[in-house]
Amino acid sequence: DRRRLRSCQLMLKEVCAVWSWISSNVNALTLTRLILLVGAWQLFLSLLFLLALKRQTEEPESSYAPSVSVIIACKGASRHFELNIRSFLSQRYASTCEIIFVSPRTTDPAYQALKNLLPNYPNVRCQLLSSDAVPVRCSEKIINMLFALECVRPQTKVLVFADCEILVPENWLHSLVCSLENSGTIAVTSPPVSLAHEPSALQLLRMAWTSLLTSFLATFPIIFGPSWAMRRTDFEALGIATLWSRSVTDDLVINTTLKGTGKRIELALSAVPVCWEDCDLRSLAAWFVKGFRWCKVYAFDVWALGGIAILGKLYLWFWFLRSQVYAPLLLMAALDALALFLVFEAFHRYTPQPLNAIAPAFKHYPFWTGLSAPWLPLLQVY
Question: pLDDT tens, 328-367?
C-alpha cells in the first residue's frame, strides 16, 4: 500500500509539472491556432460526409437482391417499439426475405408485443424465438443472435442484423444489401441518426453527439451494431459466431477482425435508420460510458484518440474561461456548430423523404443541432 501511495504521489507530481509547463508556455494565440486546425479538420470531415451522401443518392439503384435473413434481438417494449417493428415488417425488397425476432424469454414484454403484432402481417415471413439466455461468457444480446443464427434458412445468402430501438425507412433493407454486390466490400452498415422528438436539452445533446460521430464514420467506416449486413459465406469464414461467443459487444469485435481482410466496409447513408427513444441523464451517461469502456477493450486506438480529443477540448474551454479570453472560445463553439449543421443539412438536402416521413420536424434539425453543439463539453465533463 505504501508503495502504491508513493507511486501515485510521483504520478501526481509529474502531472502537476506538465500542467505547470503548459500553463506557462501556452498562450491564447497558440491555442487559437490549434482551435482553427481542429475546426478545419471537423469541417473537412463534415464536407466529406455531405459529398458521400450526395454521391450515394445520385447513383442508379442496383437490382442486386439475394435472399436475406434479418435478425433482430428484442428486449423490453419501449415507447416506440411497435412503430419500430412495423417499419421492419413494411420493407420493400425484391427477393426472399425472412425476419427473425429473438427475445431472451417468452415473458419479456417485447416477446408479448411481437406475439400480438406479427399476425397482422401474414404476407411477411417471420419467426419469433425465445433463447432463454443466461449470460456467462458473452452478452445476452449476443446469445440471442447466436440462437437466431441456428434457425436461419439454408437458402439465405446475406445476413442482416438490427436493433429493435431503430425506426427504418422502407428502402432500408435494399440499401444495405445492394452494396454487397461489389466483391471488394466485406460488410455494409448504416449508422442510426438520433433525433430529438421533443424539445428536450438531453435529447438535443444526444442528437449532436451521435451526429458528430456520423461524420467521422463516413471517413473512417466501421460496422455499427444497430444496422449492418454481411454475406453469409464471409460471416462463417471469419468465424464471427465464435468471436461473439466470448465477447460483450457485437460490433467492435468484428471491426477488429475485418482489419486484416483487405476489404472495405461501406456506409449505406441514403436510407439511414432513426433512433428517437426517450433518454434521461442517467441513460445518456450510461450509453456514453459503456461505449467508451468497450472501445478501451476492443479498439484501444479509437479509445486513446477519443480520450485525447475530449480532454483537449475540455482543457481549451477551461483555459479560456480561466484566462477570461472569450473570443477564441466563441470561435471554437461556432466551428463545432457549423460542422454539425453541415451533417444534418446533408441529410436534409439529399435524403429528405425517409427522414421527413419518420420525423416531420426534421427540416428544423440542422438549426437545432448546430445550437446544441457548443454544449457538448457539458456532457463530456459529466
Answer: 888 888 888 888 888 888 888 887 766 676 666 667 778 8
- Regions in the chain scoring below 70 on pLDDT: 1, 4, 7-8, 11, 15-26, 199, 353-355, 357-362
The alpha carbon of residue 106 and the mean position of all alpha carbons in its chain are separated, in whole angstroms, by 29
Closest CA to 146 of 243, 222, 231: 243
Nearest to 147 by CA among 166, 163, 128, 125: 128
| Pairwise CA distance, residues 52 & 179, whole Å | 14
Which residue, chain included where needed, has cell 460521430?
213
- Among residues 238, 227, 235, 136, the alpha carbon closest in space to that of 188 is found at 227
pTM of the model: 0.85
C-alpha cell at 133: 439466455
Label the pairing between strands 185-189 and 227-231.
antiparallel
Residues facing 227 on adjacent strands = 162
CA distance 226 to 88: 13
At 189, phi and psi to the nearest 5?
-135, 155
Written as nine digits, the cell of 76 is 423490453
Residues pairing with 129 in the sheet: 102
Determine the Cα–Cα distance for residues 159 and 229; give it in Å rounded to an integer.
6
